[in-house]
Amino acid sequence: MNKLICKLKNVDNLDIQSLQRRIDNGHRFIVYQYSISLIVGNIFTVSPAYLLKKENQKKHTLKYNLLSFIFGWWSLDGVTNTLKSLKTNSKGGLDVTEDIMLNLDNISLKARKV
Q1: Which of 2, 39, 69, 95 has the fewest CB atoms inside 10 Å of its own CB, making it the most exposed?
Q2: What pTM value is reported for the model?
Q3: Using an 8 Å Cβ cutoff, are 18 and 26 in contact?
Q4: Closest to 31 (Cα-Cα) out of 88, 112, 107, 101
């Protein structure tokens, strides 16, 4: 089985208890999809997981939608993947909080990846 390593953003100087308090107060780990086309193929992947409150998500949505919009269209798969990215990000990205918290320990939090 393949493991997906996810980088964590906005978790500097937090321990697991502080992180859990933030999540209990409305913060979520959100990833954004993006698409970058190469002439012969397409890279369709997700951003690092950002610890954000809902009101702080707009900046990241715009960033990853703009990235896909500019660089995503230029291959056959790119059109489909760009449309998927724009749709998913416009709905607020993908909430991966539960998955991250199930796999997080003090070592991975300190390394900022899970």
Answers
A1: 2
A2: 0.91
A3: no
A4: 88
